[in-house]
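Job type: complex structure
Entries:
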Amino acid sequence: MSLRTRYVLFAISATGLTALLLWGLAGLPDFGRFGGSYGVTLNDVAVAQRHATNVVAAIVWDYRALDTMGEELILFASVMATSLLLREAREREADRSEDAVHGETIRAVGLALVGILVVVGLYTVAHGIVTPGGGFQGGVVLASGLIVVYLAGSYRTYRRVGPTALVDFGEGVGVGGYVGIGLAGMAFGAAFLANFLPLGTKGTLASAGTITALNVASGLAVAAAFVLLVMEFLQELMVMRLEEAEK
Amino acid sequence: MSYFPYLVAGLVFMIGIAGVVTSRNLIHLVVCLSVAQSGTYILLLAIGYRSGGTAPIFKGISEKAKTVDPVVQALTLTDVVVSVVVAALLLALALDVQKNEETLDPEELPSMRS
């Protein structure tokens, strides 16, 4: 198919899609007047039922925990596929490549930032059940703490802080732990992914039962996933540089 | 103007799709896909908005406070995570294409020529 025919075809289908979209959007309630009852009901019952003040977290890791398990598995599958595509035979050689950042200021600021990012990341994961945040957001912040190690330090240090075996293990434990917590509920006679742990005091870190456990499992899975993804792409770069140097 | 945010969502989505179709660089294509997905976040969050509503987090506010819809927020969260990892996978595929075909232009790929 020539480019021209494709553009013409796209113009026709885009017009159709736009019309369909506009028709659909016109059928939505006025902005700011959403009348869906699920959210209202959950707002009313979630805090009392699950002792989690963050209702979004209660939905993600309790009421719709099964959907989030699907999401975790998509995350796992995508990360594994990326690793399979990019994992290099010359991993060990690449690990020795020298690309340290020169400049004491960058290194010092970077080092300070690593600490701050890790603390903020842990804080965001831990408080996900109480205030905005949670495993997904906190996991990304945690991973970016490690990525700063590369940015302000070197690939070598990045690999030393997050070796493949450890990161792979973290990813597996995060995703496997999620499913495991679901199965543990069944061992206690509850349904799969039911909230079977003691609910604790609402508004504190020790609350919300399995929501907290699943939140931490997600945080671990997401942090490991991002460290792994960045590592795979960086490894590509290091091997490319090795090949160039050999030429 | 009560439909304005929905139109923004639709526009962002269509811009992303147009970018995907007309893209001549696979990395640009992945970014366009992310733009299209951003349209879905805006749509979800716009649908769940309630005038004057606060975040559905009942820490420090009354449990009877008016909030925006928490369900669409949970959906958006899932949406964001999935789109990011899928983008990473697509970028890895783009890298593979570059290695094997020495081009990132989809038009230059043998499988696209007929």
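Summary: The CA atoms of residues 44 and 74 of chain B lie 10 Å apart. The longest helix of chain B spans residues 70-101.
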